[in-house]
């Protein structure tokens, strides 16, 4: 049933319209906002930080429309008349029944698990109720993720590119992987599906996401992956049990105190010579881009983006025990980092640390 929802032309048309609107926002409205900003700073010194850009641009009608457009597109995507959450609610029983199917060798839930307060207090991404509170939320989230980065083509996999990067950093010797904040398993799948010789563990807070991740692994007849309900800051896994620890878009969804604990847990889990590779968003070089990034944080209900952006991540890793730390831009598709790239994109960044051998 998970992939056999009856076709609905009106729903498909609505979601296609929302995606086209987001592409318009990405490719045309963002460059127009940049031109408006450049014109405002043409005859004077450029603002030194995001707050100064905000003070300059808050009355700019292009910016006001840009922000309104982003906020309401996301609301329409999930909660509009034919939004994702609204549409799939009518198939709740069928989806939930499929997700409840046992996967005893793959799925390990904790009936006593208590969600962190920071996680339950926000409808992150404007996802109604968050991705943890509704038993079909993981399924809805998986559908929503398909248009999160609208410039990514179906033929390009962000997760496969990250997997290749992590394996290259590990020097080709990695046999054990822990994927923190694995969500519905999209970031975990390239490890276990393409590298059956590896032992892969996905760790996630959300039971609905974990159930979907397990079903996808069952569909692929995977034998080398398990999914565990646990906090990335305290996984309960054995020390030095991983050659690679990774996460994708997880750090910006937790407060700095939790991020520091995640780095300590990453260090604990890694065997000597192991590497942690966290993919997330850092917009630090250009005050205008930082300003847009912080605005996205507000509009998309992701309040921990600015604190992550302002953290001394190198120092936090060293406090956790790492000496070798590298922070570099990540090219999510070919040409994404080209200086001529004018469209909006997330400021994808690799945060890499190696445990001494």
Q: What would you note in describing this structure?
A:
It is a single chain. The protein is globular. Helix content is 44%, strand content 14%. The protein has a domain of 197 residues: Vaccinia Virus protein VP39 (Rossmann fold). The model has no long low-confidence stretch (mean pLDDT 95). With 357 residues, it is of the alpha/beta class. The chain starts with 8 loop residues before the first helix and ends with a strand. The protein has 14 helices and eight strands.
Determine and state the CATH class of the domain at 158-354. Answer: Alpha Beta
**Secondary structure category:** alpha/beta
- SS summary, helix count: 14
| Estimated radius of gyration | 21 Å
Q: Which percent range fits the helix content?
A: 40-55%
Strand content: 5-15%
Give the overall shape: globular
| Strand order of the biggest β-sheet | 1-4-3-2-5-6-8-7
* Biggest sheet details: 8 strands, mixed
Question: What is the H-and-E element order?
Answer: HHHHHEHHHEHEHEEHEHHHEE
CATH architectural label of the domain at 158-354: 3-Layer(aba) Sandwich
Low-confidence stretches: none
Mean pLDDT: 95
Q: What fold name stands as the CATH topology of the domain at 158-354?
A: Rossmann fold
The CATH homology group name of the domain at 158-354? Vaccinia Virus protein VP39
Number of strands: 8
What distance lies between the first and last C-alpha atoms, to the nearest angstrom? Answer: 47 Å
């Amino acid at each position: 049933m998970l992939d056999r929802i009856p076709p609905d032309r009106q729903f498909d048309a609505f979601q296609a319209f929302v995606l086209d609107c987001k592409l318009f926002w990405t490719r045309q409205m963002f460059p127009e906002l940049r031109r408006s900003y450049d014109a405002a700073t043409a005859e004077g010194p450029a603002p030194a930080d995001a707050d100064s850009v905000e003070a300059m641009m808050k009355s700019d009608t292009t910016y006001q429309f840009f922000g309104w457009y982003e906020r309401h597109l996301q609301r329409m995507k999930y909660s509009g008349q034919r939004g994702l959450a609204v549409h799939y609610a009518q198939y709740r029983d069928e989806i939930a029944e499929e997700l409840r199917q046992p996967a005893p060798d793959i799925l390990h839930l904790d009936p006593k698990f208590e969600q962190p307060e920071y996680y339950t207090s926000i409808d992150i991404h404007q996802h109604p109720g968050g991705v943890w509170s509704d038993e079909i939320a993981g399924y809805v989230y998986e559908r929503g993720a398909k248009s999160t980065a609208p410039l990514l083509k179906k033929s390009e996999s962000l997760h496969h590119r990250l997997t290749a990067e992590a394996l290259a950093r590990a020097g080709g010797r990695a046999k054990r992987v822990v994927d923190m904040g694995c969500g519905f398993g999209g970031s975990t799948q390239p490890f276990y599906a393409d590298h059956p010789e590896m032992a892969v563990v996905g760790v996630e807070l959300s039971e609905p996401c974990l159930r979907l991740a397990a079903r996808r692994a069952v569909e692929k007849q995977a034998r080398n992956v398990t999914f565990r309900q646990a906090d990335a800051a305290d996984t309960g896994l054995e020390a030095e049990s991983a050659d690679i620890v990774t996460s994708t878009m997880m750090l910006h969804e937790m407060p700095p105190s939790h991020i520091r604990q995640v780095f300590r847990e990453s260090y604990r889990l890694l065997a000597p010579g192991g590497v942690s590779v966290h993919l997330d968003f850092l917009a630090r070089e250009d005050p205008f881009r930082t300003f847009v990034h912080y605005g996205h944080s507000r509009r998309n209900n992701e309040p921990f983006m600015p604190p992550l952006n302002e953290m001394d991540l190198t120092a936090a890793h060293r406090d956790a025990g790492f000496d070798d730390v590298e922070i570099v831009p990540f090219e999510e598709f070919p040409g994404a980092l080209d200086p001529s790239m004018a469209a909006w994109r997330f400021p994808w960044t690799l945060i890499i640390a190696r445990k001494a051998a």
